[in-house]
Structure formats: C-alpha cells, structure tokens
Design goal:
The protein is about 45% helix and about 15% strand. The protein is α/β, with parallel strands linked by helices. The protein has a single domain, classed as 3-Layer(aba) Sandwich (Uracil-DNA Glycosylase, subunit E), CATH 3.40.470.10. Helix 1 runs antiparallel to helix 4. The longest helix has 18 residues.
C-alpha cells in the first residue's frame, strides 16, 4: 500500500467517528471519498442510497454521473469522488427520507475534511458539482448558473471548475434534460483542461 493510500485510509477511519455537527447523529454512516487521480469531483452530500451503502454517488444522481464519465472516457476509478458534507441530511415524510440541503454551519463544520482530502490527494483540478460544493471549495457564495464552466482559483492555488450537480439535471424532463446534459458534459470535459498558469 502506498503512503498516500495509507494516509487516505487513516483519514477515512478518523472521519468515521466524526460528530462535529448534529448530522453525525442521524443517518447510517459517514460517506467519505473514493477513487484517485489528478481530477477530483465534489458534490454536496450523500443521499439516501449513499448513506446506506457508505459510498459517494451511487444513487440516481450517481448513475447519471457514471454515464457522463463513461461518455467522457474517464473510468470512475480514475477520478476521486467526494462530497462537501460527509453525512446525509434528511427529513422523514411518511416512511421516506427526503434529502435536505446542509446548513451553512454544517458545511463549515465539514470543511476541514474536504481540505484534508485535497491536501492529501493534491488534485491537478477540482470540479465543483453544485452550489454547496463550490461554496465550500472557494470559501464564498457561488452563483452556479453565472459562473459555470469557468476556471476559478482556490485559496491554495488549485483550479476549480464549477458546474451543476447531476441531481439538478434529474429534475428536468425530455428535450430540456437532454440539452442540459450535453451542456453539462461540455463543462465536465473542460475539467481535465485547466488553463496554463492556474
Ligand atoms: S457532517 Fe461532517 S462535520 Fe458533521 S458530523 Fe458528519 S463528518 Fe462530521
């Protein structure tokens, strides 16, 4: 096992015991990142499927992301997938657990875990999937629709490309969804091409 893989495993073990915000007391388990490689994709938080399986991007949004990665020719295991917040936030509606967006204080509490992943993996580029990921990565509020597809720079100098979270595309239907997916793929494709100098 490489030094990096050992450090990542150690991080996952520490993460498992995290109770630094109230989300640690609900749901099934923490969901850390998986994969490796020069490109890191960051989502918002685990959903219902991720919470149960303990893996990121394994629900409907994950399936859409998988199909995008396949179309881009990036095998899932060649990118690192993670979330800004590592616990599922939800409310019960009948027997269903309905996803809730993490609060700013929960994003802030979880921020250091994402920073640790970045420091450890040293990705060449990071793609922020949605507003929560973008805000956590860039330490400011990000208007995704206005700033999507552009290269921005984190405080540590790493380039961040902002685009939509796949769950936003799942809310669309028909031609509108098809067109939105094509535009999303264009954004993602740029993720492997950070401009020189950034
Ligand atoms: S959401 Fe993040 S900070 Fe909060 S308990 Fe879970 S791992 Fe810890």
């Amino acid at each position: 096992m490489t030094k990096e893989a050992r450090a990542l495993r150690e991080l996952q073990e520490r993460l498992r015991g995290c109770r630094e915000c109230p989300l640690g007391d609900i749901g099934t388990q923490t969901v850390g990142g998986e994969g490796r490689g020069p490109l890191m994709l960051v989502g918002e938080a685990p959903g219902d499927h991720e919470d149960i399986q303990g893996r990121p991007f394994v629900g409907p949004a994950g399936r859409l992301l998988d199909s995008a990665l396949e179309r881009l020719g990036w095998p899932r295991e060649t990118v690192y997938l993670t979330n800004a917040v590592k616990h599922f936030k939800f409310e019960m509606r009948g027997k269903r657990r309905i996803h809730k967006t993490p609060a700013q204080r929960e994003i802030a509490a979880c921020h250091h875990w994402l920073d640790e992943e970045i420091a450890l993996l040293r990705p060449k580029a990071i793609v922020a999937l949605g507003a929560t990921a973008a805000a956590s990565l860039l330490d400011r509020k990000v208007a995704v629709m206005r700033e999507r597809g552009n290269w921005l720079v984190r405080g540590d100098g790493r380039p961040v490309l902002v685009t939509l979270h796949p769950s936003a595309l799942l809310r669309l239907r028909g031609v509108e969804r098809e067109e939105a997916i094509e535009r999303w793929l264009e954004d993602l494709r740029r993720g492997t091409e950070p401009p020189p100098g950034i």
